[in-house]
């Protein structure tokens, strides 16, 4: 869903607007609302954040954030999962996690929803990579595949459910496979 403003909108103007549910993103001067997550998307997002959070707790190396607004490079996007290594997480004056993240995540993960524009989502991942993200993932529940965008390398389309997925160096080994990820869709 694209909401076209009456006048040209700047990034600062966008950031002053009230938040929407689901979130809206600011891409190339346009306000674009993300689709409402459905069952598969929600389940994969919740399980992936839980899995990553549990894995990162053992090393303290990184944190996984669901639906975190990241503003950088003239865009304000909301990846389904944004992973930041601990030393890059912005802090407020108290030393708590800040509310505003004005930097690209170390690892951006998107989960394709039905009728979602794959080109726009891919564009957001490429934007992240251009601004320092180590890896971008695009999970497709219907195809049971992941398109991995390693920084400065050719994308990888993985469909072998048993092959360990290459993850960016975030300080811990994850051992994820597509069988494990898409197995989370089973009740």
How would you portray this structure in words?
The protein is an alpha+beta fold. The protein has one domain: tt1808, chain A (Alpha-Beta Complex). The chain is built from 4 helices and 11 strands. The strands form 3 sheets. A 6-stranded mixed sheet has the order 4-7-8-9-10-11, sandwiched between helices. The chain has a 3-stranded antiparallel sheet with strand order 1-3-2, with no helix packed on it. The chain is globular, with a radius of gyration of 16 Å. The two termini are about 30 Å apart.
Mean pLDDT: 93
* Rg over CA atoms: 16 Å
The biggest sheet, with number of strands, parallel, antiparallel or mixed sense and barrel status, is: 6 strands, mixed
Strand coverage percent: 15-25%
CATH class descriptor: Alpha Beta
- The CATH architecture comes to Alpha-Beta Complex
Please trace the helix and strand order, writing H or E for each element: EHEEHEEEEEHEEEH
Integer count of domains: 1
- The third-level CATH topology is tt1808, chain A
């Amino acid at each position: 869903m694209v909401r076209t403003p009456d006048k040209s909108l700047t990034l600062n103007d966008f950031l002053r607007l009230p938040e929407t549910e689901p979130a809206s993103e600011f891409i190339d001067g346009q306000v674009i609302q993300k689709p409402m997550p459905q069952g598969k998307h929600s389940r994969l997002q919740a399980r992936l954040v839980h899995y990553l959070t549990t894995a990162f707790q053992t090393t303290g190396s990184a944190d996984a954030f669901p639906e975190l607004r990241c503003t950088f490079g003239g865009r304000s996007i909301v990846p389904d999962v944004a992973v930041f290594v601990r030393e890059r997480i912005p802090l407020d004056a108290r030393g708590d996690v800040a509310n505003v993240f004005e930097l690209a995540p170390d690892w951006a993960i998107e989960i394709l929803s039905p009728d979602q524009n794959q080109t726009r989502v891919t564009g957001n991942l490429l934007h992240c990579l251009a601004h320092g993200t180590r890896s971008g993932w695009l999970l497709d529940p219907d195809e049971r595949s992941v398109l991995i965008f390693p920084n400065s390398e050719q994308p990888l389309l993985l469909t072998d459910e048993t092959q360990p997925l290459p993850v960016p160096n975030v300080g811990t080994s994850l051992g994820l496979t597509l069988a494990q990820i898409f197995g989370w869709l089973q009740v």
